[in-house]
Amino acid sequence: MIKPKKFLQKLIKIFKFGSGKGRKNEEDLQKIAEQEQKHFPFEILVAATKNFHATHKLGQGGFGPVFRGRLSDGREIAVKKLSQTSNQGKKEFQNEAKLLARVQHRNVVNLLGYCVHGTEKLLVYEYVSNESLDKLLFKSNRRQELDWKRRFDIICGIARGLLYLHEDSHNCIIHRDIKASNILLDEKWVPKIADFGMARLFPEDQTHVNTRVAGTSGYMAPEYVMNGQLSVKADVFSFGVLVLELISGQRNSTFSSHSESQSLLEWVYKLYKKGRSLDMMDSAIVASAVPEQVAMCIQIGLLCTQGDPQLRPTMRRVVVLLSKKPGNLEEPTRPGVPGSRYRRSRRPPALSSTAGSSGETDSRTFDPSLHTSTASASTSTVVSPRSDPYGKRPMLG
Q1: Is 177 annotated as catalytic?
Q2: Which of 73, 134, 153, 177 is catalytic?
Q3: How many other C-beta atoms are found inside a 10 Å radius of the C-beta of residue 243?
Q4: What does the alpha-carbon distance between residue 127 and residue 185 come to, in Å, rounded to a whole number?
Q5: Long-range interactions of 96-99: CB distance < 8 A, separation 24+
Q6: Domains contained in the chain, CATH given
Q7: Distance (Å, rounded) from C-alpha 357 to C-alpha 201?
Q8: Runs of H (alpha helix) within the chain
Q9: What is the pLDDT of residues 136-187, one digit of tens each?
Q10: What is the rounded distance in angstroms from the CA atom of residue 359 to the CA atom of residue 229?
């Protein structure tokens, strides 16, 4: 058996920028996985999922269907099966396998192994029993189970997971699709960031890169939608949207409860400026809420969704703020929405400059071999997204 370090180096090598030998990459991936005992025989996965029976299907995304399974040793798994008609899914498969092989954190979903069998390509994950956050928060009668303590713990866990991806993993990883449906909850309600099909490695010496746009409507930062300008602050923006969704129980992308406000962010900001931010709380958490803590999280959500990316805190600062008792925070400026233009303003002293903010230095474009976007926009044109039939990501027509 090869050592883990060598395994990672070999796995990274076959997905180098500019690699064009797709078939060879898949064969190399299978060979390395077998050596490292990360390879799952196809027959084992067929048996575990009852031949990928419809009753075992957990969901459907741009990548393909996901099935629940049970191995002979009793372990429960989730099997992501690449749709054979999806060229985009093939890129996502390679991207996710490459990135998650190097990632291990309590708040990031654990990739157990791979399977390449003829035209079949599968990724095998730990099964997360409480499924995705959006199913509990928006689509089920289990919403009451998400009391304030659980929601606060979920916010803190997602923040720690993003901090790990941005600063503490082997390379800076920008997820690009942080949203409720990509947060899984285990039996102890621990949140796990999932779906790395669109994630990007980020060069350490850059403040941002210019890239084609990929993500989900309602969660993408305005500078990313307008100019394809990607930095860790794009993930920070998405996190801020998710925080406000968790507190309000309302989805930003379909927000329509208040006709005077065009988005959840605008509605919350108006309430905040009037000193009535707690009015946006989901009725399901009113009884269990700690008002000072809720107010702090609302303000953090607004700070993370500011129009100017330089004013948004880093995830390290967010984690620090969440770990302290509620106190005085900076005043958030108006939140950004896709299509809006923000006015540059002076950075508050409390927010330190970091290499993750969108800045003035020259940028580079990643090699398209690692690009996994399902939406695109040039720096001069903005195209309105239409919805993916599975609700995964917007696509541009």
Answers
A1: yes
A2: 177
A3: 28
A4: 10
A5: 96/63, 96/123, 96/195, 96/196, 96/197, 96/199, 97/11, 97/15, 97/29, 97/123, 98/11, 98/12, 98/15, 99/173, 99/196, 99/199, 99/201
A6: 4-126 (3.30.200.20), 133-395 (1.10.510.10)
A7: 15
A8: 4-13, 22-35, 42-48, 87-100, 133-137, 148-163, 222-227, 232-248, 264-273, 291-304, 315-323
A9: 998 768 888 999 999 999 999 999 999 999 999 888 889 888 999 999 999 9
A10: 10
CA 132 to each of CA 23, 116, 266, 295: distance values in angstroms, whole numbers, following the listed order: 33, 26, 26, 25
> Cβ atoms within 10 A of the Cβ of 354, count?
18
Burial zone of 362 (CB within 10 Å; 0-12 exposed, 13-18 middle, 19+ buried) = exposed
Quick: pLDDT tens for 319-344: 999 998 887 889 999 998 654 554 44
- Decide the pairing of beta strands 183-185 and 191-193: antiparallel
Would you state the structure tokens that stand for residue 99, as one six-digit string? 């990135």
Please spell the DSSP secondary structure of 126-150, one letter per residue: E--TT-BHHHHHTSSTTGGG--HHH
pLDDT digits (tens, 9 = 90+) for 32-86: 444 445 789 999 999 999 999 999 998 876 677 899 999 999 999 999 888 776 6
Using DSSP's 3-state secondary structure scheme, residue 59 falls into strand
Distance between CA 372 and CA 50 in Å, rounded? 31
220, exposed or middle or buried, with CB in 10 Å at 0-12, 13-18, 19+?
Answer: buried
Q: Which amino acid is at 250?
A: Q
Tokens 């990548």 appear where? 63
SS3 of residue 65 by DSSP: strand
Task: Give residue 42's Cα distance to chain centre.
Answer: 29
Q: In this structure, are residues 262 and 122 in contact, taking their beta carbons and an 8 Å threshold?
A: no
Asked if 312 and 236 touch (Cβ cutoff 8 Å), the reply is yes
Q: Which residue has the tokens 């269907």?
A: 65
Among 91, 145, 131, which Cα is nearest to 366's? 91
